[in-house]
Design a protein that fits this description.
Number of strands: 8
Distance between the termini: 58 Å
Shape: elongated
Strand order of the largest sheet: 2-1-4-7
Order of helices and strands: HEEEEEEEE
Radius of gyration: 23 Å
Number of helices: 1
Length: 131
């Protein structure tokens, strides 16, 4: 049987055509997202900022949101510290019990994750961005 060229979608049901278009749209979205993530990750080590927000709650139940924190250096939370932290940046972060990002007791919070201190543990007082 000879093979002939047909216009796109010819001979396909409307449902199959819709699935095909939806699949192409998803693929385009995934490629665009991957490009954005690679662009941000590639620039993050150049004294740039972490795209997104870090939100934490203090002992007095005050909610603090930091937008686009620098990827370099130690970020102080303040004397009261934080009990709950939500990392809504595109980079991971490390929480410390000390105000100067030192010490062995720390917590690693991946991108788009949150964490709460363990009962009886002191509050987090600083953090760094992993880049």
């Amino acid at each position: 049987m000879p093979v002939t060229d047909h216009p796109p979608g010819a001979g396909r049901s409307p449902r199959a055509e819709h699935r095909s278009r939806a699949g192409h749209q998803r693929l385009r979205l995934l490629v665009a997202t991957a490009c954005l993530v690679l662009t941000v990750a590639g620039c993050s080590g150049l004294g740039r900022t972490a795209v997104g927000t870090v939100t934490y709650e203090t002992e007095q139940r005050n909610r603090v949101t930091v937008s686009n924190p620098l990827v370099t250096g130690c970020h102080s939370i303040g004397s009261t510290g934080a009990h709950t932290v939500a990392n809504r940046t595109l980079l991971d972060m490390i929480m410390y019990l000390t105000p100067d990002c030192t010490g062995e007791q720390n917590a690693y919070i991946a991108t788009m994750q949150s964490d709460t201190i363990a009962p009886g543990s002191g509050p987090w007082r600083s953090y760094t961005i992993v880049h």
